[in-house]
Amino acid sequence: MSSFGCVFRRILISVLLIVILGIPVLRSGGLIKAPDGADSTSSATLVLPEQPSGEFLCLINTELHKDTLSDWEKFFLGEELPVIFDDISCIASESDVNGIQLAERFQLQLPENQMALRTEVPTLLISKAEEGFIDVAVISKEMADALCFDASRLKDDIKVISVSGA
Fold this sequence. Notes:
The protein starts with a helix and ends with a strand. It has a 5-stranded mixed sheet. It has 2 domains: 41 residues; 110 residues, D-Maltodextrin-Binding Protein, domain 2 (3-Layer(aba) Sandwich). The chain is an alpha/beta fold. It contains 7 helices and 5 strands, in the order H-H-H-E-H-E-H-E-H-E-H-E. It is 45% helix and 19% strand. It is elongated, with a radius of gyration of 27 Å. Helix 5 links the parallel strand 2 and strand 3.
């Protein structure tokens, strides 16, 4: 086959691809709408779950957050802050519905992936907190009372912040 035949086939295939793919895009206005449309980050709205009512305890390991401790305290108390450049791992009791709800609310208020959240068996959560094997824990006062949680048994490097719900 001659080189003219190869060139002609390539041109024919290119024209067919443009016709098959290009015409539907042009007719739908896809290329025209794309630059003018709002991007997902500027138009997204974040709906926070309601803050549960009641009293809560936020336990923070001060050894892990020496430089940002005051920022995290303010955050958990509901104050507006600039970005905190520190990631946290939060645990809540798996049977503490209000504690989990508050922890999820905190998680949604932070940039994506800044706060890892997991649940723990209640007695194991208290044991870990007392021994200082936590980063951050959220527990409702009601659950803490049911588990006979005593803040005086905590290691010195665990700070307790009292948070009031709605």
